[in-house]
Amino acid sequence: MGNLKNSDLVEIVFWLLIAVIFFSVSFNFNQPIEIYKFGATGWPRVILALIGLAALGNLYHSFKNGSKTQKGRVGASEAPDQVYYSSLTDYLKTAWILVIPLLYAISLKPVGFYFGTPFFIALVMLAWGERRVKFILLSTLFIYALLIILFMFILNAPLPQGNVSPFYDFSAFMLKMKTQFDQLF
Amino acid sequence: MLDNFLTGTATLFGDPFTVGIFIFGVIGGMLFGAIPGVSMLTLAAILLPFTADLSPSQGVMLFAVIYCTGTYGGAITAILFNIPGAPENAPTAFDGYPMTQKGMAGKAVGAAVLCSAVGGVASAIVMMSATEPLAQWAIMNIGPPEIFALVFFGLAVASSVGGRTIWKGWLSVLLGLLIATIGQDPVGGINRFNFGFSDLAAGIAFVPAILGFFAVSEIFVQAEKKVSGNYSAPKFSVDFPTFFELWAHKIAVIRSILVGFFCGILPGIGATLAAFMGYGEAVRWSKNKSDFGKGKLEGVISSETANNAATGAAMIPLLALGLPGGALTAMMVAVFQMHDLEPGPLVFYNSPDLIWIVFAGMFYANLSILFIGLLETKTILYLLKIPFQFLAPMILMLASIGAYISRGLVLDVIVMFAAGVIGFLLRRSGYSIPGIVLGLILGKIGEQNFAQGMQMVHYDLGTYFSRPICTILIIAGVLTLVKSLHSAFFAKHVES
Fold first, then answer.
1. Which residues on neighbouring strands pair with residue A29, listed in sequence order?
2. Which of A89, A153, A173, B260 lies in the 20 to 30 Å Cα band around B478?
3. Measured in whole angstroms, how far is the alpha carbon of residue B234 from the centre of its chain?
4. How far does CA A104 lie from the centroid of its chain?
5. How far from B422 is each of A62, B192, B343, B444, CA to CA, in Å?
6. Which residues 164-183 of A have a C-beta within 8 angstroms of B?
7. Residue A138 in contact with residue A160, Cβ under 8 Å?
8. Domain residue spans in chain B?
9. Is B158:B281 a contact under the CB 8 Å cutoff?
10. How far is A113 from chain B (nearest CA, A)?
11. How many Cβ atoms sit within 10 Å of the Cβ of residue B19?
């Protein structure tokens, strides 16, 4: 197996899966275009073939050199330093950090920006390991107020309002407050 | 030219309301560029509806000013937090962030201020003196084959920077190209890879993808370090570069101005490729190639000079041919259209006032970078003192709003966070985020111009290679590829 590690095998499987899945989906739009010989599939299929080739090259490199960095690669230091996990809890903590924003994004449609945001801000701080309750509360309030003032009051930006009661009602209340504020001036 | 410039200056500063718009554009561009998580594109997207109430010259001038100062502002976050404010600032982070880690943030930001101003002013002067002849030259000599050839060369250069190996560099670029194929194909308008989601018919929007890959993934990287106890706060410093340090890089500045201007003048290419090529050329001509990517001042200088040099040049295809060179110049086309105008050769004859107020605005905006930039730099460096557990949710929120505002779709926020997770995992494995983003940006342009070029030459490669600029660029791209492949098989390797 040369210098191959399990992570190298995961990588090759990942890239080949992408290539195979996208290639098979490309048959869904494999229609000729009258004015263009290569059609809608030509360009993406060349990219997929190159992905396959580069993935094999990557596997060969790992087989020969392991995870060593190729000498002379510029900007390779942007890759983060190796991080070691000492326990399952560390993995769970990182997974939690990755999942919270996705949950927030998915909740934006039903819950809306105005209601969900303070909870999201506080949860991110908690996930980052912050445990001072006063700091979390005050920071959440400060960031939320800053965003509302900048985007709602000054820039009048349209933000998601949610479509489920009572979250939608809360957004409507915020917008009503803003209208009343505007009428003051 | 001088008369027209003075007339443009008088019009710009003769009306207090126009002066107010100019100042708003200068400060707004710098701030939105320099706040991690949002960018000049966020500000432009918010302001777009309001430009209907402005005159055409005020509206286009506002966007041109935001373009100049926002391009500089994005360097600040690239240097301080490894979060490029815009794709054109991505190569700045290669050396800028390592400089911050070494406690040299002040030097990097100071160099970015000065070089952005120099690149921008030089570009504005050439733009003012030569827009019409350069536009004529571009019309005569630059067609789809040349643009495709430049995209190919640019991608070859991009694959050679970032990423732990050449294979990972190429896989990053190819992933970006693949993401760019999602949505309608540029020739027949056939839906590709939308997986049943109707919102994906318009493709993956640049803004959320870029925010996800750059800003969100960096937050995740820092969070992981914090969780595992490897986090160290960036070092604070306000030492500016000395005059002699900057003077020593005069050749790099001149080279980057030329590279930036050349890339900017080509329709659809813009400042992003300019920054990559400026950086790539600096590496190519350097005697100490191995120092790049580890905190070399020349890296910041080359990238920042080139991207600002492209801002002025990008106005040439926009104004003379009606072809935008990037997301922000595309929004300028929208400003024109809101006022029933079409950018193109006729604008020079029908609306000379508009042209010269825009040129004057860009010239003074670039000068402002020097003065306001130097004043604000010391203040901005104090961002490094804010605890990251406070900054992180702030950046994530600003990025969420920035992603949502451009199209008003919650899907874009989901795409942004998904891109953040993918970016985080790929970075851990040594892939290049700037490579992915450049592939994403240039993918559609490359495919469209390849298709048009092939149709032009009736699929005859002999005719394709009879065009000298095209041939030179393709050969340069192939040589770059061959060289990187050679090093992939024969170069020494070091422990990561």
1. none
2. B260
3. 25
4. 11
5. 21, 21, 39, 21
6. none
7. no
8. 2-234+246-489
9. no
10. 9
11. 12
- ipTM attached to this prediction: 0.91
Q: Per the CB < 8 Å rule, is A72 touching B289? A: yes
Of B227, B401, B427, the CB nearest to A90: B227
Per-residue pLDDT of chain B (496 residues; tens, 9 = 90+): 778 888 888 988 888 999 999 999 998 888 888 776 667 877 887 787 778 788 888 898 999 999 888 888 888 888 888 888 777 888 898 889 889 888 888 889 888 988 888 888 998 888 888 777 776 777 777 788 988 888 888 888 778 767 788 899 899 999 999 999 999 988 888 999 988 888 788 888 877 888 888 888 888 888 888 777 766 666 666 677 777 888 888 899 999 999 888 888 776 567 778 888 888 888 888 888 778 888 889 999 999 999 888 888 888 777 776 767 667 777 888 888 778 777 766 777 778 888 889 889 999 998 888 888 777 777 777 776 778 788 889 889 988 988 888 788 899 999 999 999 999 999 888 898 888 888 887 888 889 889 999 998 888 888 888 899 899 989 988 998 888 888 777 766 655 5
Task: Identify the residue whose tokens are 């109707």.
Answer: B198
Interface of A with B in 118-147 (CB under 8 A): 120-121, 124-125, 127-130, 139-140, 143, 146-147
Residue type, B138: A
Cross-chain Cβ contact A36/B188 below 8 Å = yes
Q: Do A143 and B495 touch (CB under 8 A)?
A: no
Q: Is A17 helix (H, G, I), strand (E, B) or coil?
A: helix
Q: Which residues of B touch A134 (CB under 8 A)?
A: none
Q: How far is CA B240 from CA B69, B244, B245, B265, B377, in A?
A: 20, 12, 10, 32, 10
